Amino acid sequence: PSKKKRRWKPYSKLSWEEKQQFDERQSLRASRLRAEMFAKGQPVAPYNTTQFLMEDHDQEEPDLKTGLYPRRAAAKSDDTSEEDFLEEAAEEDGGSDGMGGDGSEFLQRDFSETYERYHVESLQNMSKQELVKEYLELEKCLSRMEEENNRLRMESKKHGGEATETRVRQLELEVDRLRAENLRLLREKDLSGQ
């Protein structure tokens, strides 16, 4: 046997460095073969790899290191809801994902799923006393929100009546003005027709 012959190892048993060296050798070999084929005038196909997909993929991946974030109850005030949190995240994103409406829906769904998973994990890691405390805090928040909602409804009914009356007056004045203009235009039409 030839002394130059390299020992062969299955790809799955190569170390990380060996895999990188192997992949580099393969890509160099493929680019050399493509150059030779191009020089001969034969059709050339790109190197068969998914690397171009990874390069095209958005490099701005969200940071999902959950250990860096405090619990939701501590991080957010009692006045904010999950919808507010999601809207804030969408505003911070700025909509510049380049994917259009469907892409933003996908990102929204992906974020919601990730957020739910993190929330479930954090609840699973809590002790019984912490869960009871969290539940009581949420109950307080819910009752405050219900009171605020009722107060706003009462204010809107009280002020809504006044606002409706002023709006009706404005619309009546507008109708009167339009009727007068309509009569003027009809007179002008009759005069021009004679």
UniProtKB/TrEMBL annotation:
<dbReference type="InterPro" id="IPR024872">
    <property type="entry name" value="HEXIM"/>
</dbReference>
<dbReference type="Pfam" id="PF15313">
    <property type="entry name" value="HEXIM"/>
</dbReference>
<protein>
    <submittedName>
        <fullName>HEXI1 protein</fullName>
    </submittedName>
</protein>
<dbReference type="GO" id="GO:0004861">
    <property type="term" value="F:cyclin-dependent protein serine/threonine kinase inhibitor activity"/>
</dbReference>
<feature type="compositionally biased region" description="Acidic residues">
    <location>
        <begin position="80"/>
        <end position="95"/>
    </location>
</feature>
<comment type="similarity">
    <text>Belongs to the HEXIM family.</text>
</comment>
<feature type="coiled-coil region">
    <location>
        <begin position="128"/>
        <end position="188"/>
    </location>
</feature>
<dbReference type="GO" id="GO:0005737">
    <property type="term" value="C:cytoplasm"/>
</dbReference>
<keyword id="KW-0805">Transcription regulation</keyword>
<dbReference type="GO" id="GO:0097322">
    <property type="term" value="F:7SK snRNA binding"/>
</dbReference>
<keyword id="KW-0804">Transcription</keyword>
<keyword id="KW-0539">Nucleus</keyword>
<dbReference type="GO" id="GO:0005654">
    <property type="term" value="C:nucleoplasm"/>
</dbReference>
<dbReference type="GO" id="GO:0000122">
    <property type="term" value="P:negative regulation of transcription by RNA polymerase II"/>
</dbReference>
<keyword id="KW-0175">Coiled coil</keyword>
<keyword id="KW-0678">Repressor</keyword>
<feature type="region of interest" description="Disordered">
    <location>
        <begin position="58"/>
        <end position="106"/>
    </location>
</feature>
